[in-house]
């Protein structure tokens, strides 16, 4: 009897675990210098839930670190790219090849702004037409766009960045919403795109006191987090000056100024997003010791 009870409890536990969204930070680095040194990985974020298998911003290393972390890229059914900078798109083509079973069958969604799909004044096409035509649905997005991906809806937010076409993404789930800002500086009204989200991942490339036009510093993040007031704020896409300054210290600064729980992501970190939000960190063997480099 007791054993049966334990089995049922275990099943319920697994069901609840399964129904959570798994958000895996395969890479938490951003910017040219972190990309070229791989002081943090630049592999983007994987989001999974009951059939949904989505890769967000597959920068350099997305394919390798997916496989290394036992997340089969052949199971992908959506790839989202926020803008036309290499730390956000370089592995998109190989992930499309994996998603389409080696380009043998049309499958999955590719959603990205025009700058990525067609090119713009600031960049060439980021993903070849050959790859673009192999996805089942190619969605050109702009801020305020809304589209379904598997069981959820996704909307695009505005990012103020050196690619003027850049967007962020907001994911609407039965547990509430979570969002990703992509690269953006603070601008008036940015909070309206994120109002009511429970979890906000911000691309905080620069530390406090080091602003850079079109990019997010800790000071920008403080203003955004203070206006949005999510349950949890996550700093990711950390640049070299941010790593030098100490992302944990900067997270404490955001938390101290806003009263909103704030965590600096580490490579391999997984969030379980459901009725509660849980963090599972994975100790990386090669999480680099910055003091040896800088
Ligand atoms: Zn970036
Ligand atoms: Zn960028």
What labels describe this entry?
294 residues; alpha/beta; eight-stranded mixed β-sheet; 16 strands; disordered C terminus; binds zinc ion
Tell me what you see in this structure:
The protein has 294 residues and is an alpha/beta fold. The strands form two sheets. An eight-stranded mixed sheet has the order 6-5-4-3-2-1-15-16. Strands 7, 8, 9, 10, 11, 12, 13 and 14 form an eight-stranded mixed sheet that branches. The N and C termini lie far apart (60 Å). The C terminus is likely disordered. The structure holds zinc ion (2 copies).
E-strand count: 16
Biggest β-sheet: strands ordered side by side in the sheet: 6-5-4-3-2-1-15-16
Radius of gyration, Cα only, in angstroms?
19 Å
Helical coverage, percent range: 25-40%
């Amino acid at each position: 009897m007791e054993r049966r009870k334990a089995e049922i409890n275990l099943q319920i536990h697994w069901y609840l675990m399964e129904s959570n969204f798994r958000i895996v930070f395969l890479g938490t680095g951003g910017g040219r210098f972190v990309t070229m040194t791989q002081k943090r990985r630049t592999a983007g974020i994987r989001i999974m839930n009951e059939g949904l298998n989505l890769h967000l911003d597959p920068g350099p290393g997305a394919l390798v670190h997916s496989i290394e972390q036992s997340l089969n890229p052949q199971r992908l059914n959506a790839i989202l790219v926020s803008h036309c900078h290499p730390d956000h798109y370089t592995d998109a083509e190989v992930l499309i090849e994996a998603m389409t079973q080696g380009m043998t069958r049309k499958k999955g969604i590719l959603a990205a702004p025009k700058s990525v799909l067609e090119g713009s004044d600031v960049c060439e096409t980021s993903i070849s037409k050959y790859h673009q035509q192999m996805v089942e649905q190619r969605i050109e997005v702009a801020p305020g766009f809304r589209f379904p991906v598997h069981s959820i809806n996704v909307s695009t937010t505005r990012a103020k960045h050196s690619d003027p076409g850049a967007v962020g993404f907001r994911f609407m789930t039965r547990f509430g919403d979570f969002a990703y800002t992509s690269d953006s500086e603070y601008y008036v009204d940015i909070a309206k795109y994120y109002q009511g989200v429970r979890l906000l991942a911000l691309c905080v490339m620069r530390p406090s006191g080091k602003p850079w036009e079109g990019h997010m510093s800790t000071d920008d993040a403080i203003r955004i987090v203070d206006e949005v007031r999510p349950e949890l704020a996550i700093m990711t896409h950390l640049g070299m000056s941010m790593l030098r300054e100490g992302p944990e210290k900067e997270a404490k600064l955001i938390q101290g100024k806003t009263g909103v729980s704030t965590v600096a992501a580490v490579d391999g970190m997984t969030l379980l997003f459901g009725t509660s939000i849980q963090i599972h960190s994975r100790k990386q063997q090669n999480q680099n010791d910055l003091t040896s480099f800088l």
